[in-house]
Amino acid sequence: MRRHRDHAPRTAARTSEAPLSVQPEPTDGTTPGRDTPSSEDADTRPATPPDPGTPPGDDPGVFEATRRVRAGAMGLAQAHIDLLKAELAVAGRQLGVIIGMALAILVLAVLTGLLIVIGSWLFLGEWLFGSMGWGILHGSLWFIALAVPLALDLAGGWRGATTRGLGAGLLVTLVLWILFASNVLRDTAVRAGEAIEPSFAIEPAIWPSLVGFAVGALLVGIAGLVMLWRSGSVRGRQLLVVVGALAVVGGLVGAILGSVTFDTKGALAIALTIGLVTWIGVMVAVAAARGFDPEARYAGLKPTESIAMAEETKTFLERQWRRQRRKVLGR
Fold first, then answer.
1. Which of 105, 268, 242 is nearest to 172 (CA)?
2. Which of 31, 118, 175, 221 is the least crowded, having the fewest Cβ atoms under 10 Å away?
3. Domain ranges (residues) in the chain
4. What is the per-residue pLDDT across 176-213, written as a single tens digit (0 to 9) for each?
5. By the 8 A CB rule, do 187 and 258 touch?
6. End-to-end CA gap in the chain
7. CA contacts within 13 A on the Cβ side of 328
8. Distance separating alpha carbons of residues 180 and 260, to the nearest angstrom
9. Residue 229: how many CB atoms within 10 A of its CB?
10. What's the whole-model pTM score?
């Protein structure tokens, strides 16, 4: 009975297991359970197009591969060059805009500086002397007085003429300012006219001008004669003509000074004008008297040491050449 129970489960287990069937794998590369493509389907499937650059079944050689690499490199380089040209064109336009803006700033700055300088002279002329015309006159003479020393230096003139001219201009300005502001010339001319008026039947108002003309012509004529005689630049009839012209100019100036009453501002304006003219004139006169030496002025531009060394080297080489020629030719 016990043996029968032990064998019962084994028999049931064996009868419950289903037999397994093993299917062989296909050897043609198809998947089991799928339909195998027929020869008709294979004929209708599109074929892969061959490489156009390489003939079917023919690999490129060394030269062909080199040519292709060179063509590719040239194309890449050309692409970089085209890109660089495009970027440079854009940069060039931006650079032109930047340069234009910089030039505009420079022009505006120069115009602003000119406006400040010119406006300052006009303002000073109106403020100090009551007229912008004085500012224009004094500003023009001032810049001329600054330009003359540069011109004299470039011409090889004596540089000390600038300081002498400046000293003379300052002295003349101060002396004339005191004379004009005190109206000593006017008062002297009036008194002299009143003293000689009974002897001549002339309008009394004209006497100050006549006295001023006579005194001015006499003083300027004598001063010009002395200066020209000492310099020796003019002799004979030319001396008389120059002295006469100076006397006329001095007479006109004396007539004006003898007939005009000055206030402090007017006296300073006229004295400053004459002082600036004196500064310019004395600079030119002193430089001309000392003479001009452009060669000495520009001597530093000549490479004298290099020329001297070159001459010494030339002499040495010529001497060596003659010595070697005597050794070779026996002469």
1. 268
2. 31
3. 76-183+262-295, 205-260
4. 898 888 888 777 777 777 777 676 666 667 777 777 78
5. no
6. 154
7. 6
8. 9
9. 13
10. 0.61
